[in-house]
Specification:
Length: about 110
C-alpha cells in the first residue's frame, strides 16, 4: 500500500467517496461536473472528495484541454484489498488459536 494508512482509511470511510469510486469504475473517466450530476453534493464538494481519493492513490487526474478528467487507479485499490485480507487472515488465525485454547484448556 503506497499511501499512508490514514489517507487510505480517510478516503474509504466516506459514502460519497465510495459512490465517486463506483461511478468512475462503472462509467469510466469523468469530470467533477459529470460526477456531481449523479451525487447529492456540489461540484466543489466532488472536487474535494476527488482530492482525498487522489491523495490516497485511488484516482488519477488528467488534464484534457480545459477539463480535468478522473479515472480509477485499480492497482492501489487491489493492494489495499490484499492488505486488509492479510490483516483479516491474521485475526482469523489468532481467533482460531484462542478458540482451541478455550476448548482445551489443558492443552491436550
Amino acid at each position: 500500500m503506497a499511501a499512508p494508512p490514514h489517507d487510505v482509511f480517510a478516503a474509504l470511510a466516506d459514502p460519497t467517496r465510495w459512490r465517486v469510486l463506483t461511478l468512475l469504475a462503472e462509467r469510466g473517466d469523468r469530470t467533477a461536473t459529470l460526477l456531481a450530476r449523479d451525487l447529492p453534493v456540489s461540484r466543489v464538494a466532488v472536487v474535494k472528495h476527488l482530492a482525498v481519493l487522489d491523495r490516497a492513490g485511488f484516482v488519477e487526474a488528467r488534464r484534457q484541454g480545459r477539463e480535468v478528467r478522473y479515472t480509477v487507479r485499480p492497482d492501489p485499490l487491489d493492494a489495499t484489498a490484499r492488505w486488509l485480507a492479510s490483516i483479516a487472515s491474521d485475526w482469523d488465525d489468532r481467533l482460531a488459536r484462542i478458540k482451541r485454547m478455550a476448548e482445551d484448556p489443558a492443552g491436550d
